[in-house]
Amino acid sequence: MAKVGIVMGSDSDMPVMAKAAEILDKLGVEYEMTIISAHREPDIFFAWAKSAEEKGFKVIIAGAGKAAHLPGMCAAIFPLPVIGIPMKTSDLGGVDSLYSIVQMPSGIPVATVAINGGANAGILAAKILAASDEELLGRLKAYSEELKGDVVKKAQKLDELGYKEYMAQMK
């Protein structure tokens, strides 16, 4: 089975990266997760990125904050899709990370999700893999129907309770 590599520059990124892993778990996609700092341990990073294809990774999800070089460096080495997750930072709210990841030079694309968009990164990785996996595509379609059903239930509840009571129950 195709695997996804999940890499982050710091354990402080774990809450966001865990959302990608949770989605992949839900959809039955195998992954491997690790922490590697492209800046503090470049030798370890290069070895990991160079071996990613041999490990069976078909997509890498890379999360990083501030200078956020990790996703771009993965894309420079790994020949298959890389999804970058910009992390919200205390300095600039994650806009620095977003710009760093999304503004890649021509020839080195990184698919980029929203700041702290771990769940969407997991879904996007699964969609990429589903292009050649009918069973995964079926699970993705079921997941989409589940999301739709959740919204329909909330709308029905709002209709039944009215705005004020609905909001009171949300607190």
Categorize the overall geometry.
Answer: globular
How far is the N terminus from the C terminus?
Answer: 43 Å
- Let me know the number of strands: 5
Strand order of the largest sheet: 2-1-3-4-5
Mean pLDDT: 95
Helix content: 40-55%
Q: Main sheet?
A: 5 strands, parallel
Give me the strand/helix succession. Answer: EHEHEHEHEHHH
Q: What are the low-pLDDT stretches, counting only 5+ consecutive residues below 50? A: none
Number of helices: 7
The SS-based structural class is: alpha/beta
The amount of beta strand, in percent, is: 15-25%
What does the radius of gyration come to?
18 Å
Question: Please, could you describe this protein's structure?
Answer:
The chain contains 7 helices and 5 strands, in the order βαβαβαβαβααα. It has helices at 14-27, 42-51, 69-77, 95-102, 118-130, 134-161, 163-170, and strands at residues 3-8, 30-35, 57-64, 82-86, 111-112. A 5-stranded parallel β-sheet has the order 2-1-3-4-5, with helices on both faces. Helix 1 runs parallel beside helix 5 (118-130), helix 5 (118-130) crosses helix 6 and helix 6 (134-161) packs across helix 7 (163-170). The chain is globular.
